[in-house]
Amino acid sequence: MKDEFKRFGLEKMGLTIIILETLGALGLLVGLKFNFILMISSLGLALLMFAGLIVRIKIKDSIWVSLPAFSYMVLNAFIFWKSINSSI
């Protein structure tokens, strides 16, 4: 994983990104009980995956390699959208 962060030019941010991803995943689990936490976690992960997708595009990775970041971004955006609609 360290090699990937070096390839992306994000070696100084690696630990921060790992912590944010872990907190987001825990937030999705806790969010099954508390909708507000689900909204925050899914939005945060969607934005994080959007940033990851931008980085992949910037370093000219193939579409195939960028597909997981895109898929997780769409999935978390969908979770966010559904959690917003269920709280209204």
What is this structure's SSE topology?
Blueprint: H1 2-8, H2 14-30, H3 35-58, H4 63-87
Task: Please give a quick description of this structure.
It is a multi-pass membrane protein. With 88 residues, the chain is mainly α. Helices cover 83% and strands 0% of the residues.
Could you characterize the architecture of this molecule?
This is DoxX-like protein. Its main location: membrane. Keywords: Membrane, Transmembrane, Transmembrane helix. The protein is mainly α and 88 residues long. The mean pLDDT is 91. It is globular and about 40 Å long. The protein has one domain (2-87). It is built from four helices and no strands. It has helices at 2-8, 14-30, 35-58, 63-87. α3 (35-58) runs antiparallel to α4 (63-87).
Keywords, please?
single chain, 88 residues, 0% strand
